[in-house]
């Protein structure tokens, strides 16, 4: 079993309070037009008229050559963390495909695992990858812009 994971709530709350992003910059604030602004905390699109932030995000514990950093969107006001477990999050239904990449416990890409994958096949691909002992987690990124979407881990229990 797998679990789709949003960005950590404590980090989302820190950004909302004005903490610096991965580059130490204050998140930018904008108003959503309702088109293509996926929040990385609730893993749903930000509704038209709602405030959101754009910031540099690095979903890795430390800096290293594989620690990709890129822009993400986040509701400016509190939103619930995604709790859908193995269910495909709404943000992964807005494009026909996404880049799926697996990483080891050392946060390095496990070569040969990266593939542009149809949205409907993401869960099955992640389950196959996470069945391997050398893979600790799977990251989902935009196949067109390489923006981080969410992480997939083994479900506990």
Automatic annotation (TrEMBL):
Protein name: DUF1203 domain-containing protein
Listed InterPro entries: DUF1203
One Pfam entry name: DUF1203
């Amino acid at each position: 079993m797998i679990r789709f994971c949003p960005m950590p709530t404590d980090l989302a709350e820190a950004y909302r309070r004005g903490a610096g992003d991965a580059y130490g910059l204050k998140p930018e604030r904008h108003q959503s037009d309702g088109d293509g602004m996926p929040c990385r905390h609730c893993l749903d699109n930000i509704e038209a008229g709602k405030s959101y932030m754009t910031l540099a995000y690095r979903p890795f514990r430390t800096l290293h050559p594989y620690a990709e950093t890129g822009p993400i969107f986040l509701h400016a006001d509190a939103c619930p963390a995604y709790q859908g477990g193995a269910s495909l999050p709404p943000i992964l239904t807005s494009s026909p495909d996404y880049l799926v990449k697996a990483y080891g416990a050392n946060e390095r890409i496990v070569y040969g695992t990266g593939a542009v994958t149809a949205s409907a096949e993401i869960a099955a691909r992640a389950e196959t990858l996470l069945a391997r002992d050398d893979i600790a987690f799977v990251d989902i990124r935009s196949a067109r812009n390489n923006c981080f979407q969410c992480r997939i881990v083994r479900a506990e229990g």
